[in-house]
Amino acid sequence: MFCPKCGNELADTARFCGKCGSAIGGVPDGPAQQPPEPQKFNFTAPAFSGEAACGAVADTAARAVSNAISEPGGVIGAGLKSFFSSVGAAVKDPKRLIPALALALVWLVLNVLQACGVNPFPTRILSFLTFAGGGTSGGVIGAVGGIVGKGIFAGALVSLIGLFTRKGGVKRSFGETVKGAFGVSLDTLWAYLCGIGAAMLLYLFISGGATRASFMGGIAAAFLAARAALSGGFLRQLLGSFTKSKNASHPNVSGIVRGLAAGFAAAALLGMTGVKLILLIFGGLLFAGGGVIMILQATGVVKFGKGAKA
User: Fold this and answer.
1) Which of the four, 16, 249, 251, 308, has the lowest number of CB atoms within 10 Å?
2) How confident is the model at residue 202, as a pLDDT?
3) Integer distance in angstroms from the first to the last C-alpha of the chain?
């Protein structure tokens, strides 16, 4: 073996050149370094505070979702219980059923006459005024919507008394009634517009496409919404259950209910044109736009007036 640097002949076991002192075979002058041990990673993460915080957030979100479902569900359950209680009371006192039974009989007679081709002008006028054609057009969806619309019309008829009275029998002036049923303020504007849009879309549903013939159905719906705006009831409680405060008197609840009253009245009038696209476009834009701004207002992203957060 020879030194690669100076060519001096060396023994086969030599580690250094005896002439120039160079290391043989790339062996370093100092002590050999041990290669570093590979780093070991522990994939079992302990429960740090961040993990606990994430768990708390997830638990809070789950409770919020559960409350959002249970609160409206509780109101709906209470409403159904009240409804069946009213039905039971009506059965015990048949006089309460007279208006509804009379209206159902009128609807039956008018529909039978029209089906038989007997449809003179007085029959058409009476059919228009009583919303007898509800559910006779628009296929399955129209039939379902017509049933809902007829229920609204019947409810409006039997609850007509009491629109102009407060609780306790105190009379309202005409101006107070109009303001309480249809009035709007700056802090409820977007909720009001959302209610108008929702009413226009709902009117399309209950009319089954026959918007002209459903005029009285829209007026009846406007009446019930106005009554709810003035005296509360199931609708306000249901909408209030979606607010943070669970308050049926929340400004946004009042705005939506009053918007529904104005929207159903406007939809009934616009529906007389027979152009369903008007209701669809205006209803969709007002419902979506008003709803988005209302949510942004409630979360504090935008501010109008002195509205409270939902």
Assistant:
1) 249
2) 95
3) 92
- Report pTM: 0.67
Backbone torsions φ then ψ of 251, nearest 5 degrees: -55, -40
Q: What does the domain layout of the chain look like in residue ranges?
A: 131-298
SS3 185: coil
State which amino acid sits at residue 97.
Answer: L
- The answer to whether residues 221 and 199 touch, using CB atoms and an 8 Å cutoff, is yes
Q: Name the residue among 273, 169, 265 with its Cα closest to residue 217.
A: 265
Q: Map residue 171 onto helix, strand or coil.
A: strand
> CA-CA distances (angstroms) from residue 208 to 128, 145, 200?
15, 6, 13
Q: What length does the chain have? A: 310
User: What CA–CA distance (Å, rounded) separates 298 from 188?
Assistant: 11
Report whether 182 contacts 262 (CB < 8 A): yes
Which amino acid is present at 181? A
